[in-house]
Amino acid sequence: MTNFQQGWGAGPSARYDELAAPFRPIFARIRENAVARDLEHRLPEEELSWLRAAGFTKLRLPPELGGQGASLPELFALLIELSEADPNVTNSVRAHFGFIEDVFSSGDEAWRSRWLERVAAGQTVGSGHSEIGATALGTQSTTLRREGDGWIIDGEKYYTTGSLYADWVGAAATDEEGEVRLVLVPTTAKGVTILDDWDGFGQSLTASGTTRFDNVALDAGSVKPGVDRFPYATGFYQLVHLATLAGIARAASVDVARHVSGRQRVYARGNGFSAAGDPQILQVVGKVRNAAYAAAAIALKVAEALQRAHDAQFDTELGEEARALAYDLSELEVNQSVSVVSDLVLNATTVLFDALGASAAKRTHGLDRHWRNARTISSHNPRIYHDRNAGQYAVTGVIDRTRPSVGIPTEEQKTA
To answer: Residue 161 is part of which domain span?
Structure first.
């Protein structure tokens, strides 16, 4: 059954259902055991292998490399469907899809070709950008130094989402000139340790814990030439979270409807002889469904802005100012969406319990995981700053281009 037939609206392209068809049975299989995996803390390694085998991780690649040439709206629509099945899996491939955008944007033909071939061969990339502790704001304590024809990387990362399941860690490290570089580290290399020590109450199966690099030797092609990321990176990574939230809301909507339709016990103060016949209960179910519909519609509208930003970087007829505007406006559309989508989904995953009885709190039902996952995702890149950025643009016409980072301010930064 298509999203249109389910009432979620048509896909972002005429071919979308054809594109999605091979993956929907896999999404269904992933969802079958999502509650059990959450309860047992069973990592979705097998589920990710199903997606890789089906070509999901190379969706954005052109057909000649075994991909589908998926547009960004098509990709994000599929991520919404995957998130309905299990948002842990979506977050685990977030860095991989971001890395592909980095490859597309690279001006170094040899490096781009090398990594496109590796992704085409089914290899995947996890996250290794964040650090905790006393790292100075805007810097990386992980270091990269030359040794012969290759490199050596040392350091420790946290929030290394998906790296435990991947072939490579896409890490940020400071080179000998003080520049932060994108480094690809084989997960099986000597000196690499990846731990499943993320202890968050939500998104607990993303393996978003510690990765250590102890004198890890790398070949010359493991470091991306230049220091620039793809120009719409901030908006892209945040939109993966919005798509994930939209999928969580869909799953919550389906779950609450299923529980209401099967519920036989009613309250004496109710308005019907079945939960499914009580208009107040149906109103709650409708509220959750409406939130899911709106969250996805917003996320896919923002995906169109990111597609325009992607296209702008390859449009030779555009000047630098027009290109920069496309990047800025895509970032603005993300900023304008974060709090709205977060509020919709956090509210929906809370009020769904109003349609059910106390038995809905049973852990074996897994209804609580929707809120836990949504609350965890909504804590990334605090939404208060997205609101501020949108307000700043409305008042001044200026879009904040600061890349998100976390750290300890230096004395120089405090006095600047």
So the answer is: 126-222
